[in-house]
Amino acid sequence: MQFIYVLPVWEGSAANGRVLQDALLRPHRLKVPRPGYYLVDAGYTNGEGFLAPYRGQRYHLNDWRDGHQPITAKEFFNMKHSSARNVIERCFGMLKARWAILRDNSYYPIEQKVRIIMACCLLHNFIMQEMPVNPLDNDGEVDEGIGDHGVEDGDKKNVVGTSNEWTAFRDNLTQSMFASWNTTN
Question: Number of structural domains, the chain?
């Protein structure tokens, strides 16, 4: 429930891929975990280090309410992907709940807005590290694994593109997850 990379200089209407490419090219760039990946939404390509959901399949958690079960492996993968990405949305919700200045449009100069966003994210992370129980979390449980994100510098990654290898990785992961789920249900 912490931010590991913040790049608040882009407008909200900028294309996701363009913002990601910029984050990968900066001197203090976004580092892709090795081994591992980041979960991204359907606005990004499914490429090395970035695992996207299947397009054209049910995805949102609301699709799985009222006892609806996934029928295909791709639907199951998207359900699990959506559930994991929900943590990201909760983190943004906590940030806005904690810092009222982020809830509305501000009329500060852009340089000051960038500093405000960075300060709020840094303070959020500090609070999450220092408080054993998060007062903004409904269940009051302690978040484990805060701090070490397993990011290695490795090769400098500066382009994200669809790759056959990464698509095969996602497909194999999807089939494995679905097969495991089918044996227990």
Answer: 1
**What percentage of the chain reaches a pLDDT higher than 70?**
86
Whether the predicted pLDDT of 152 surpasses 70: no
Task: Please give the C-alpha separations between residue 108 and each of 8, 33, 122, in angstroms, as whole numbers.
Answer: 14, 35, 19
Are 97 and 136 in contact by the 8 Å Cβ rule? The answer is yes
- Average of pLDDT values for 71-78? 94
Q: Quick check: is 166 in a domain?
A: yes
Backbone angles phi, psi at 27, to 5 degrees: -55, -40
Residue 27 placed within a domain: yes
- Asked if residue 161 is part of any domain, the answer here is yes
Q: Region 12-23: what's the mean pLDDT?
A: 85
| CA atoms of 30 and 7, how far apart (whole Å) | 9
Structural domain containing residue 54: 16-102+151-184
> Count of residues for the chain?
185
What is the value of pTM for the model shown? 0.74
- 39 phi/psi in degrees, rounded to 5: -80, 130
Rg (CA), the chain: 18
